[in-house]
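User: structure tokens for this one?
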Amino acid sequence: MKNILIDGYNLGLEKGTGVATYARNLSYEIGNLGYRTSVLYGNRAAPSRQPLMREIAFFDSNVGERNRMLEIMEQAHRAVLGPLGHVAAEVPVTGKVIARHFSARLPHYDDLYNATDVFKRSQSAFKLWGEVSNVKMPVRPDLVHWTYPIPLRVKRVPNIYTLHDIVPLRLPYATLDHKRRYFNLLKKLDKVAEHFVTVSECSRRDLIDIVGIAPERITNTYQSVDIPAKYRDKPVEQVAREVEGATNAGYKDYFLFWGSIEPKKNIGRMIEAYLASKVDTPLVMVGAQAWKSEQELRLLDSTTLQQFEIIDRVISQKKRVIQLQYAPFSLLVSLIRGAKAALFPSLYEGFGLPALEAMLLGTPVMCSDTSSLPEVAGDAALMVDPYDTAAISQAIRQLDADADLRAELSRRGLKQAERFTPAVYRDNLAALYQRLL
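Assistant:
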């Protein structure tokens, strides 16, 4: 049986991201294709000769915390000698550690490995030397599929890298990445990678036109959306109770946004458009505050609200913005199902998974008419220019007032989601892996 290794760079145990969802879904599809699935993590826990301690440390990275002075000495050593290789150790998951708390976060796997701080260290090495670091596995895989542009590789096997988008180059003001280093990393990976994977034709064109990667070296597999039936088919009465308990808003009586509060997501314009729409339907936002979140949320600041004389309207029972920093996946699915419509006016997306998740659950979608979103949404969403606040506001009013429009978008969305099923994605992956193996 062929063995495919993926990275756990975005598969942290405490929180998830869109790329984490991609990596987790990828792990399951690799298993469904009949390959042995290995996952490499980069937790801080120091290696141990005792298997039990490796298992414990994997689920509690404070066990085996490394001495700070040793870390400083090692960093100095790396600076003198250049990028060093990294060695991974197997993590035995025997059940001695009760890990059900993390079951929703863990990917599918046959083997788990950990190399201490390998992702952070490889990035530090690239910053110093501009080189891709090697990682030595206890068992050499037949293929490595990195789910993110990481300066790592396993020698003497095909290494492929998923490049979701190039937002740091297309919207440089919207990320904290070091732009020159990011561009240099993509050019370096082009020299060492066997192949690249991306998730939309929009991203593929960007990689060809802007980064200069040869077209035959990039395959667009898209990605799938799949929500477990226990969440997707939950009784409506239960969904309504969960929604009302979490937000104090009624079932099908609120707009919903979910995702990181950051410039790329266009939160500031969305809030401005929502306030200008004068609809009574509340806006629920689910997401952690990230870089420049205070700037995106400035219209909700009490001083600003008083200046615009809209504070009473926002905090009244009929007109309010409700913020949740976090929602577990089961509650998030209920919030999506219970929403009158999903709002997703992002400035740029490599794929735009939230829009597709909403469609799968029958929730009408308003999204941008830019980047990959027209590919993903097709004719199943109300599309707007994300830079046009008046257009976003008008779309919100349409969705709020027109039940027939919402029903039609819901019907189209369910049909559009069928184009991105796990079976379709699996076929795309199978064709790619068969070429490379």
